[in-house]
Amino acid sequence: MNKQQTLAAEKRRKTTLTVILSVICIIYVLPVLSVLINSFKQNSFVKTDTFALPNAESWAGVSNFVKGMTFGNYPFWKSVLFSVFITIVSTILILLFTSMAAWYIARVNSTFCKIVYYLCVFSMVVPFQMVMFTLSKTADTLKLNTPWTIPVVYLGFGAGLAIFMFVGFVKSIPLEIEEAASIDGCGPIRTYFSVVFPMLRPTMISVGILEIMWVWNDYLLPYLVLDINKYRTIPIHIQYLKGSYGTVDLGATMALILLSIIPVIIFYLICQKYIIKGVAAGAVKG
Cys bridge to 139: 11, 80, 107, 144, which one at CB 3.0-4.6 A? Predict the structure, then answer.
């Protein structure tokens, strides 16, 4: 095969790969596009002409957004505040404690650390449905059923992936750097915060993005743990957009779903390059 044939084959391969990835991209974008279209349509047209574009007859404007935010006796702004608080606090706890634990696991080569590490990795493959009823009872017993304490529960569930990524990155950091800090008089805590913590930035950003997207969109855990009559996150608030006899205003529902996913989409688009960098950095010696 000559050079020209090789270039032609490579071009066909790239074209085929581009087409396949474009189709996959369209499949992923279609649900979001459907939500966007139906959020501006009247409820009756959402049910009958789901995939049709809004027209003069079906156009609802911003009334769906107003209806969704003012529906019922539970204010939407409270749900937003609870979601923001839970997401931020949970992410901070996960980043801080799991990075410290990962550093200890990576540097202390003991049987105990290996067991803890593999237990964390194993927790990534355990279905949530296996533990949700036990979790709900435990959270009630330990008084972790409020927005101020549920981040502790998220810390437990988010530790597996975070420790896995942090351990891989810490192993790529030369040990001599930490030894030099120790010679200069730094203790373990100061070594971590002054030396190790700044170097964890790529993986820290990557893990933070993934955890924020998970906690913000999570429905099942808050639904099981929180008292939904007092505390509702955005996904739970959307679930309760029901009228008499269980009727659902799909237009208002789509409008609130759109409001809930827009921040995540913008956040992801801005930070997606850090996800790739962080995963690649954490996979060096994972």
Answer: 144
